[in-house]
Write a structure and sequence with these properties.
By secondary structure, the chain is an all-alpha fold. It is built from 14 helices and no strands. The chain is globular, with a radius of gyration of 21 Å.
């Protein structure tokens, strides 16, 4: 008679961690769909919130920076389209960062009861922000029709810059959500960082207004390269990428992603105990 033996090997969980991410993909789908439904549950206008926030911000920024400050647009592109082209990646990044940084605390009961790779939780929370992005993108199409502005073939590369925005939000999000489990003060710091980042990023204005001697330093903000990339994809020849700055921003994104994953994995073993 054949007997099956169960062998428990120390460190097996760590060894199979990355394989477990794929093995628990169904949990990823369930958490993603749950977050999408909960986000708009019991709201009066539902998914319209995904449209109203960037649209109202675009109107305010266009009025302030174009009509009052008299800052130039990029080429002959309408100022409203230039601003909204930057609002899309910024809204995705800020929403994803906020959702990811609070995701572990929001799933405390699940974490304390069952094993699964905790990395699934912040990653699933970012999917909600991607849905918001797709909804908001419809408004961009409407603006282009209204201004009779046709995008160039560069728009086919938009996905590349969206992936970079995703990696930027995940890197910072993983770092902050790991710290937020132990130090709950970080839930108050994140909204401040997001608000501060909006004003120092080239959302309401073109990054070309930054003096040349400061542009490389300005690109230490990882979203500068992403926003410039989005505008280049949407506005075509009217917008240009400052490549030294873009490469620096990309390097900062990679660095943040490495630090975020490292900090998350370092603290992951203690999540169930302190959450």
């Amino acid at each position: 008679m054949k007997t099956n033996h169960l062998i428990i090997e120390a460190g097996q969980t760590e060894k199979n961690y990355w394989a477990d991410l794929w093995r628990y993909r169904d949990l990823f789908y369930i958490l993603s769909w749950r977050d999408i439904k909960v986000r708009y549950k019991q709201t009066v206008v539902g998914v319209l919130w995904s449209v109203l926030r960037p649209l109202l911000t675009m109107i305010i920024f266009t009025f302030v920076f174009s009509n009052i400050a008299k800052l130039p647009a990029e080429g002959s592109a309408p100022y409203a389209i230039m601003v909204y082209a930057a609002m899309l990646p910024w809204q995705f990044f800020s929403n994803a960062l906020s959702e990811a940084s609070n995701s572990l605390v929001g799933n405390a009961n699940l974490i304390s009861k069952v094993y699964f790779p905790r990395l699934i939780i912040p990653t699933a929370s970012v999917i909600t922000s991607f849905v918001d992005f797709l909804i908001s993108f419809v408004i961009l199409v409407g603006l282009m029709i209204y201004y009779m502005y046709a995008p160039s073939w560069n728009i086919l590369l938009l996905t590349v810059f969206l992936v970079i925005a995703f990696l930027a939000s995940m890197g910072l999000g993983l770092y902050l959500t790991a710290l937020n489990v132990k130090y709950r003060d970080f839930r108050y710091i994140v909204p401040f960082l997001v608000q501060f980042g909006l004003y120092i990023s080239p959302v309401g204005f073109s990054s070309s207004v930054v003096p040349d001697q400061w542009r490389l330093l300005y690109s230490l903000n990882p979203m500068v390269g992403v926003i410039d990339g989005f505008r280049w994809c949407i506005l075509g020849g009217q917008s240009h990428i400052y490549w030294p700055g873009f490469l620096l921003s990309l390097g900062i994104v990679v660095l943040f992603l490495f630090l975020g994953v490292y900090q998350f994995r370092k603290m992951e073993k203690t999540f169930a105990d302190v959450i």
